[in-house]
Amino acid sequence: MLGKLTDSFTSTLFGRVETTRLPVRTSSGQAQAVYLPTAAPGLGDSGVIIGREVYSGKGYVYDPFQLYGQQLPAPHWLVLGESGNGKSALEKTYVLRQLRFRDRQVVVLDAQGEDGVGEWNLIANALGIKSIRLDPLAARDGGVKLNPLDPAITTTGQLSLLRTIIEVAMGRGLEERAGFALKAAHAHVTATVRHRQPVLTDIIDTLRSPDLSAVESLGVEVGEVQSWGLDVALVLDRLVDGDLRGMFDGPTSAGIDLDAPLIVFDLSHIDRNSIAMPILMAIVGVWLEHTWLRPDRVKRIFLVEEAWHIINSPFVAQLFQRLLKFGRRLGLSFVAVVHHLSDVVDGAAAKEASAILKMSSTRTIYMQKAEEARATGRVLGLPRWAVEIIPTLSPGIAVWDVNGNVQVVKHIITEAEKPLVYTDRAMTEDAVAERDRADQQLAAQPRI
Predict the structure, then answer these.
(1) pLDDT number for residue 16
(2) Beta strands of 100-222 (E only): which ranges?
(3) What's the total number of domains in the chain?
(4) Average of pLDDT values for 178-192?
(5) What single DSSP character describes residue 414?
(6) Mind telling me which residue stretches traverse the membrane in this protein (predicted)?
(7) How many CB atoms lie within 10 A of CB 443?
(8) Is 104 in the same domain as 237?
(9) Cα 14 from Cα 46, distance rounded (Å)
(10) Domain encompassing residue 81
(11) DSSP run (H or E) holding 301
(12) In the beta sheet, which residues pair with residue 400?
């Protein structure tokens, strides 16, 4: 009787009673099986393990080659963030883990370093690979040389590279008359130098003493054509007798192993704020385009530190735009590492930078200050919640945007990787010993 009265009273106040079961007291640990948590879908389980998704705790796996054509329209990747928040550690572990696959090959342009070597030197040594150190002083004493006129580069590629070098150095486009003088000089050198590799000195000498056939075809005086090419000759002379001499004024050095799983160009001896850096980027980029990229089904990764030297120069950026287009046809993933997006989107190459950003379907953003985070969010089209948490991110945690799939990921570094990833020279004796043991373990592994 009491139960019926209770039911009648409850239904009057709250409507029909669905159940009369007594409440159950339990813990949240037990109740989670009833109220399952939800999280954004991951990227699958095929590829390289990055770490854990912060909110769900799920493992986070990423591989542009596995995702391309399904979730990614392009395999290129942009990494952003303030110094000291984990960009370098992410790049290094990513490369080490990619090299576990047999059909992977990586080229790194290492623009940073300490103690006289690039910061990728430890990893290269551990894998039994010698870095390609581009150093003007070392090059004069038999160091590494890269020849812009290497026969491995097509004649069209050589001329394009020469124009880019000159335009970067001059800070403006090449005028028509100067461009013709350069084209005529290059054609003359290509046609007449047969018994050896043509070198920059041949171009300079021809610019100073133009070929008579080029003069006759235009019906102008030799002196006029000579004056057209004078500024061009002076710019190229810097690579032969100036501060950049020794690296590009001779045949390409023998012994550069383009089949090695990891190729490291050590640029740490070059002033990062000088005009030399974008010139180097242009020469290395075009040289790789014509000597390294091949249709052999190998998946290649081209990782560039301090990439604003590329994206902030209109002439160099145009070359790299072409290189990025190889991603779909030849399996190339371009990884650009930049501190601040404002360094490039507000720079001299804003148009070219925008095009490169559009090709980067993956964006990883580490901690940035609030103002920079808002600017980054606007340019990349990040959701509001992601923009708001970027200034609060701890080192090692980043916002990942993979073609609109946005998640917060904590990067995990294994004990074996730590000695190779953390390159601070102020390490303790125990840490040095740990690094040496890791080097020995990696060196003992079979080559990939």
Answers:
(1) 53
(2) 104-110, 113-114, 117-118, 132-133
(3) 2
(4) 91
(5) -
(6) none
(7) 12
(8) no
(9) 52
(10) 48-140+260-282+298-444
(11) strand 299-304
(12) 364, 407
